[in-house]
## 1
Amino acid sequence: MTPDYTYADLAKMIDHSLLQPTLTRAQLEAGCRLALAYDVASICILPYYVWHCAEMLRGSGVRASTTVGFPHGGHATRIKKIEAKEALADGAQELDMVVNISAVLSQDWDYVRQDIAAVIEVAHDAGQKVKVIFENCYLQDEHKIRLCEICGELGADWVKTSTGYGTGGATMADLALMRKHSPPHVQVKAAGGVRDLDTLLAVRALGVTRCGASRTAEMLGEGRQRLGLPPIEVPTTTPVASAPGY
């Protein structure tokens, strides 16, 4: 049976995740080289390394992305705005922000709305995009549905299941719920739990357009094999200039 997808369809679903706090600079750079070689959608990297990542990606089709309010979402809104502005100044093109989970569980929807709106405004004013992370493992369906509605009203670019650092990640039920309750202009991103090609294809069938992944090489390598494509060779070095004030 001929697959109903191309390699680009798969690769451009992947946000290669480089967010583990123990990653060294050498590992971050190697992760950027890998993601660049596989031509993924974006690299979501530790905020302090965004400038280097953006420099490595310059001229490619891979976008630099990073986090805001990560991983617990409890930062004051003004701090999230500062984080967003700094990340964009360093070259980030997509921001993955965490909602204020405490405010969501308190059902303080006015606060939740203005918190999300503040980051979206900063990013959209710069011509860049925002993914809003719910951290569904801590929420009830009523919270997730209301967040989808708010994100739709505010023009978020994606709603996202998880940080990958909570007590659970993406589930098929949550992804279906988020797709159902988000307007067509809001995309859905899965994070935490998409670790093999079959799961990637399954969430794609639900309408998911992005997945946070650390097993990028394994998933896309299998995808290339199924499509009869040669394996990817990842370069071992990429010269990068020094960041100002690094």
## 2
Amino acid sequence: MELTERDYELISDCFPKHRGNVRMGNLEVLNALLYVVENGCKWRRLPERFGNWHSVYMRVNRWAKSGVLAEVFAALQSRQLLRLKVEAVSLDSTSIKVHPDGTGALKKTASRPSGRAGAGGTPSFIWLPQMSARR
């Protein structure tokens, strides 16, 4: 899933102009991003042929924050150079915090004595749930 120079020329107007000394062109960075998306690898596992993984990540991150990436993928899909479809979304359990009561954890049962009489002992009432028969 790599783009050629001809494909890049069709969407080159979506990218910002380079400023200063730039070692990697936009096409190389875009192809590195497509490699990560296609193979599901981590940025650190990016093959060396794409250059320094951190440089690629930083540029893609800037593109994502400024809206360039959304514009590029919209242009790729409108010109039918690349078709993307999200089929599955997963959430990592470390990203969603749940209250301990929601995880099925056992409640604390140790008694805490207080100043009131009978607070730490047996309850002063008994509650019995009863089923009512309805027809």
